[in-house]
Write a structure and sequence with these properties.
InterPro entries: DUF3046. The protein is mainly alpha-helical. It has one domain (3-60). It has five helices and no strands. The chain has helices spanning 3-14, 16-25, 36-41, 46-56, 61-64. The longest helix is centred in the N-terminal third of the chain and has 12 residues, at 3-14. The protein is globular and about 30 Å long.
Length: 77
């Protein structure tokens, strides 16, 4: 997942205003309470951040990938 895809999905799933607010203000417990913006700046993979955010916000798997419901591939190990 690219960062631009992350932002598009954030807006699709949470809405533009609420999604951007979450990205700036919501501390992600699984990522040492960094916000989305901080985690991206720290170089954490957008797909990892997305899954952490969705888990914390209790977004079901069936809704977290937007209208096509296809999860992007995991990053190479």
């Amino acid at each position: 997942m690219r960062e631009r895809e992350f932002w598009a999905l954030l807006e699709e799933v949470f809405g533009r205003v609420y999604g951007r607010s979450l990205a700036r203000d919501q501390g992600l417990v699984a990522l040492d309470s960094m916000t989305v913006v901080e985690a991206l700046a720290a170089g954490i993979e957008p797909r990892v951040i997305w899954n952490v955010l969705c888990n914390q916000m209790e977004v079901p798997d069936s809704k977290r990938w937007g209208k096509d419901h296809n999860a992007p591939p995991l990053p190479a190990a």
